[in-house]
Amino acid sequence: ENTLLYTGIISSYLSFTSSLIADMNANPIVPLLPAQAERALNYTDDLQPPGLERVTLDMQAQQMVLYFDESVDVSLFDPTALTLRNANNSENYTLTGGSRLTLLDGPTLAFSLLAPQDVNRIKALFSLARSADTTFIDATSSLISDLRAPVGNLFAATAGFPVQHGDFTPDSAPPDLSLFQQLNMDAGTLTLLF
Q1: pTM
Q2: What one-character-per-residue DSSP string does 69-121 give?
């Protein structure tokens, strides 16, 4: 990816082949090859921050996918800028980490909720991330930025972005005992880790 293209009028050129378009009689356009590329007469810089268009959350796979309205610099992704909350914000949880699954810049970013404390704490909240109706996203401007050179536009902070029906997969895995930690007959307690 060349981040030096289309950063101003001096780096904004257009070339195309004859397959670009044809007239009403099916005559192809005269090609404008790279050696004769035409420079733009005017240039308007990208000053708009990237915005969120859609979110999918899969609690079974412990993954989230963010869809933006323009390409973003995935290397600048900060999962700690995301908070999951329910409809009335009575329960919410800010992520402490995550691992990018998307490696190339573009309008889509997938990541794993790898921090075990995040997944377990979200699951422990009764009215959060149980369905699309109980899953909303708040995000700060440090979430990500676009590919504008030399410095990208920061994300447009959002509050209460809904996860739509069909974009939410609930956790349906049964609990699995990982350790029978302690049985205290004096206190009458049993400690199990799942």
Answers
A1: 0.80
A2: EEEE-GGG--GGGEEEE-TTSSSEEE----EE---S-EEEEEEE---HHHHHH
